[in-house]
Design a protein that fits this description.
- The complex is a heterodimer of chains A (310) and B (192).
- Helices cover 26% and strands 35% of the residues of chain A.
- In chain A, the strands form three sheets. In chain A, strands 5, 6, 7, 9, 10, 12, 13, 14 and 15 form a nine-stranded antiparallel beta sheet that branches. In chain A, strands 1-2-11 form a three-stranded mixed beta sheet, with no helix packed on it.
- The longest helix of chain A has 16 residues.
- Chain A has 310 residues and is α+β, with helices and mostly antiparallel strands.
- Chain B is built from ten helices and no strands.
- In chain B, helix 2 crosses helix 3, helix 2 packs across helix 4 and helix 3 crosses helix 4.
- Chain B is globular.
- With 192 residues, chain B is an all-alpha fold.
- The chains are: A alpha+beta (310), B mainly alpha (192).
- Chains A and B meet through helix 2, helix 3 and helix 4 of A and helix 2, helix 3, helix 8 and helix 10 of B.
Chain lengths: 310, 192
């Protein structure tokens, strides 16, 4: 063991450089935060995401106008388009304050406790000055493909496997929610209990919101999202650094799609997007991955499988 | 601080003596900072990350199971936190200082001192995944056992051993000291 460690002495020496800071002390800052937010928790990802968006939105870049790609249907209607984030209508997102973070954290905790496939209107009493009632959704989750297939029906044929060893690992389904609840009823329930929140179970509609399917091959993962975009005007997606993305229009079985690659440090994020209207509804299909086993040709093959799956 | 002292402090904190948490932090903060510093490649971000790690640890102290060393538990939080930071960074133009250097907008050797101690090490680290960087630091520098690293990274100890050897080779191959001809390979310059 000692020999093995010695054999990596060069690496250890490299990271024993005197320029590496050794005199840091975060204790004061941490203790202050703990004191000031005693009962509050940090939001794991939702707030982080908002903050990240806020940071991105405030970044000034030497953005050069680029042409964006669109997909249109036979009627000439835009069914999908991509634009740079700088063109988004609402680019200023306020960073949430401590109360909002605490509220969102509580919401995440409640969501974590919910059973998959349930939805509820939830009124959280604390840190909620506007007395907002939130609809919390926990999608149906399926470890087995046959269970997912039974749920979504024959309208969506979900393949079990793809070339390069990609096999189904998990799937989830979410529907639109019947939003009929009475806020006043929830407020009254809240007054009558010591619990910090009250909830009313809601029902799903039959209207699909989205299906997400994941395929793995070793450590590589490919994600397929099928989203109901019926009624979504122009279906625009805003990308940060759109000018850094390589995009091209591809055609598979006479169906147009957009294939894109965006460098992400040492890997490249690739995706292919198309919209179908065969079932009378507009459905956006998006397959995305960082896998090095994937490229435009593979993307077209995957797309063909979904287009012809029966 | 040995595990007995750590356990004693944890008991006191969990019984309500919250101020003693400061003592725990003092014992572990430099190690956690060092880890974050090498994974993120940025001093200020590493300090922020260290704060976050200790805040998260405090919030979850009751969930800490003492079968694994406290340090390993902290590293596990740090590992997950750094992954989150890097995931977010992928979507931003956050500190692309090497790109700036390429455009001649900053002097890299001046700038890099503010963020990371060595450009060649930074560039070599940039060729590694977060997992590989973690393995390199925890095994190659901190000399943690594979068993402990497996608890931190949720990976099999035997496969980590093999992976570490491969990672060390990969790192050495990528490491080019500046005085031997420079190493400004900007294509993989951002730690992600």
């Amino acid at each position: 063991m000692q020999n093995q460690r010695d054999s990596h002495k060069d690496i250890k020496d490299l990271f024993s450089d005197p320029r590496i800071p050794q005199q840091i002390d975060v204790t004061k800052a941490v203790m202050e935060k703990i004191q000031s937010q005693k009962e509050r928790f940090f939001v794991k990802y939702k707030v982080s995401l908002l903050v990240a968006i806020a940071i991105l939105a405030s970044v000034t870049t030497a953005y050069a106008a680029v042409e964006y790609l669109q997909l249109k249907n036979e009627q000439g209607e835009v069914i999908y388009q991509e634009k740079d984030a700088t063109q988004a209508p609402n680019t200023i997102i306020q960073e949430p304050d401590a109360a909002m973070m605490a509220l969102m954290q509580r919401q995440s905790e409640i969501e974590e406790q919910m059973e998959p496939g349930t939805v509820a209107a939830v009124y959280i009493k604390e840190n909620n000055p506007k007395k907002s009632v939130r609809t919390i959704v926990k999608p149906f989750e399926f470890a087995k493909l046959e269970d997912l297939q039974n749920k979504v029906g024959s309208q969506f044929m979900i393949p079990a496997a793809f070339p390069e060893g990609f096999v189904y690992v998990s799937g989830s389904v979410e529907y639109e929610v019947k939003g009929d609840y009475d806020k006043e009823e929830l407020y009254k329930l809240a007054e009558a209990t010591d619990q910090d929140y009250v909830q009313k179970p809601l029902e799903w509609t039959d209207e699909l919101s989205h299906i997400v399917v994941k395929y793995n091959a070793g450590e590589d993962e490919i994600r397929v999202a099928i989203t109901n975009i019926e009624g979504v005007l122009d279906n625009t997606v805003y990308y940060v650094n759109q000018d850094e993305r390589k995009t091209e229009k591809v055609v598979v079985d006479q169906k147009e799609a957009i294939y894109s690659e965006q460098p992400m440090g040492e890997s490249t994020h690739k995706s292919i997007v198309w919209v179908t209207e065969d079932t009378g509804k507009k459905l956006e299909y998006r397959i995305s991955t960082n896998s090095s086993k994937w490229n435009a040709e593979a993307a077209k093959k995957w797309m063909k499988v979904f287009l012809t799956a029966k | 601080m040995d595990s007995k002292e750590t356990d004693g402090l944890l008991d006191l904190i969990l019984q309500g003596d919250e101020d003693r948490y400061e003592e725990l932090m003092k014992a572990y903060q430099v190690k956690i900072f060092n880890y974050c510093y090498h994974i993120l490649g940025h001093q200020m971000e590493a300090e922020d990350a260290t704060q976050e790690v200790f805040i998260k640890a405090y919030r979850n102290l009751k969930k800490y199971k003492r079968e694994i060393p406290f340090a390993a538990w902290l590293y596990k939080i740090a590992y997950n936190h750094c992954m989150d930071v890097l995931r977010k960074r992928k979507w931003s133009r956050f500190l692309p200082f090497l790109q700036e250097a390429e455009r001649g907008e900053s002097h890299i050797d001046i700038h890099i001192e503010d963020v990371y101690f060595s450009e060649p090490v930074y560039l070599a680290m940039a060729t590694l995944s977060v997992e590989e960087r973690t393995l390199l630091i925890l095994r190659g520098v901190e000399e943690k056992t594979y068993e402990e690293i497996s608890q931190i990274m949720n990976k099999n100890a035997a496969s980590l051993r093999k992976k570490f050897e491969r990672t060390a080779v990969k790192f050495r191959t990528a490491y080019v000291p500046l005085e031997k001809g420079g190493a400004k390979h900007a294509e993989s310059a951002r730690l992600t």
